Amino acid sequence: MVPERFAPVLEEVAPLARRFADAGHQLYLVGGSVRDLLVAAENERFDLDFTTDARPDQIKAALRGWADAIWTQGERFGTIGAQHIDPTTGDERIYEVTTFRSEAYTDDSRKPKVTFGDRLEDDLARRDFTVNAMAIDVASGDQPSLVDPYGGVADLAGRVLRTPLGPDISFSDDPLRMLRAARFIAGYGLEPDEALLEAVREMAPRLAIVSPERIRDELDKLITVDHPSAGLWFLVETGLADQFLPELPAMRLEHDPIHRHKDVLTHTLAVVENIRPPHEWPDHRRDFDFRITRLAALFHDIGKPKTRGYQPKKGTTFHHHDVVGARMTRKRLEALRYSNADIEAIVELVALHLRFHTYRLGWSDAAVRRYVRDAGDVLGELNVLTRCDCTTRNERKARVLARRMDELEARIDELAAAEELAALRPELNGREVMEHLGLAPGPLVGEAMDMLMEVRLEEGLVGVDEARRRLDAWYAGHTG
Hints:
The protein is an alpha+beta fold. It has four domains: 152 residues, 2-Layer Sandwich (Beta Polymerase, domain 2); 86 residues, Hydrophobic Seed Protein (Orthogonal Bundle); 152 residues, no CATH class; 50 residues, no CATH class. The protein is built from 23 helices and 13 strands. The strands form four sheets. It has a seven-stranded mixed beta sheet. Strands 6-7 form a two-stranded antiparallel sheet. Strands 10-11 form a two-stranded parallel sheet. Strand 3 and strand 4 form a beta hairpin. Helix 6 packs across helix 8 and helix 16 packs antiparallel against helix 17. The protein starts with 6 loop residues before the first helix and ends with a helix.
């Protein structure tokens, strides 16, 4: 028997199950779908995954006439995707149906070798963790039953992370599972058993055969769980981080007296945790990319170990760690095959994460304009990162920093309303400069535009006539 809370989903998938049964095929709701049905909040919707003895062509045949869309990008791995829209409610659901399979990496391969199978038991045995090795028979025609040969329900209740077979077998089949373990530790509050820990420590170097793209995608999934720090500590303590993100464990070796932490890594993970999803922020602060900001938090202090110094009466220093860290961040993100847009945004945030603290004596209008101009498209992310970079236990200091950030955001809003701050540019464009001065395109036009931008930043909007007067004075002095 299955829990009563499964009833709405089982009723929903019954028409699909009948199609497979009528064609003589088995169909099981499997893996993460079963796990999420056990732990998800009431009425929470998520994609549904199935496994079957049907081969890909037979899966497509069963889906035709029921699915509103079918895609086959994963067909060579036995996976067919489908979209179905409920004709009564209009609700959309994504389904994936995969042939029973086994897969393993060879010693030097970056892609798994897939073999299709005929038995559910073999398919469940090859899955990553026991909490994902559960299935519900939805096509037998009898009362749906839970298939749980490896104790996944008990492990989920007891918050234990284990593999169905020996962890050495599981991680040999797909070394990325070692990295995936970090996400399950963080996302579901599971504790790895000793056998799993030992296997990861011994087999961490095998992660080298996994493609950077797959590692990147798994890191993104980890960094966006509600509380990722337990998973990030797992990466460091097992040696996995050394394989793809060695800058992370390097921060553990550096004392951080500024934030009163025993090491920079402790502070870094505290900042990552501080960055909450947008829906947890006040309405006026929700305009930021959660994943990008979390990644920027992870990287924001990676330059500290390389810039560590000491000054009498000041103690440990990390001068220019923002600049050095930005270069290191770019190199690491490129190695992990992040998109150019992601790289530029994260690198910019690392480079700018100290900017707020350079204005200790107050924010002039010019300083606010420069802050906004330099932040550009990542202004919302920079403001969130700056707030969350305060991990001091001193409540008075924390209140002061929060109040100063409130004041800065208020100033940004005031100037934005008065000056269209989001579109900071000189009051004359390049064509107007050339026409006014009688110049052809060239370096001198660029210098004139730089001068006009300085006027815009320092003084705000001075008016087109005054801008032309400033341009004439600059040109006279420049060419005289």
